[in-house]
């Protein structure tokens, strides 16, 4: 690749990054506008009862407000970032590869949202109830700081949301030929162990809660494996050697 080609590629990268950054700034401004409503909505949810948010320094409220706006902007910048990555590599793809890669963007975003919703509405309330029962068991006075509350929330929600990207990851690895049904079968037991450990880390240490988190993760893996096998068979049938 000559110097002129490098200049062209770097110019293209800069243009894509400027687009992503501009979109991030716009969504961040929107996040600053709606953060107070988002935080009040989260506080008003009756799923774990009324929990008073306390601040222990003057900056706690401001930091949570800014973190909420930043995460709001980051969430809605991910699809734009993925699209810009696809647009950057599209000239090097065939028409068929370009069309087949584009649907991964909305699917990945939708799975991320589903993971956030599942972890927030199912996993997080279980964790909070368990921790509150433990605190009451030892006679502790419950006073929760807003920074620790949201730190605990993000610690639970985002690992689960990332775990929900498993179908897209497996399908993409299958699409580029790195994952085959044989390799997937050989790695199944290791995937089960990893998902079980993940479920135990983000769920309360009681059996019911642990199963309610781990079982959906295992089912998600099996659904992803079925989709991967189906895609592999479709690729084999459509390959020129089988034509």
From TrEMBL:
The organism of origin for this protein: Paenibacillus planticolens
Protein name: Sec-independent protein translocase protein TatC
Main location: membrane
Membrane topology: Multi-pass membrane protein
Keyword terms: Cell membrane, Membrane, Protein transport, Translocation, Transmembrane, Transmembrane helix, Transport
Keyword presence, Ion transport: no
Quaternary structure, from the entry: Forms a complex with TatA.
Protein task: Part of the twin-arginine translocation (Tat) system that transports large folded proteins containing a characteristic twin-arginine motif in their signal peptide across membranes.
Family: Belongs to the TatC family.
Subcellular location: Cell membrane; Membrane
Classification via InterPro entries: Sec-indep_translocase_CS (IPR019820), TatC (IPR002033)
Presence of the UniProt keyword Transmembrane helix in the record: yes
Transmembrane segments: 17-42, 62-89, 101-123, 152-178, 213-232
Pfam family name, one: TatC
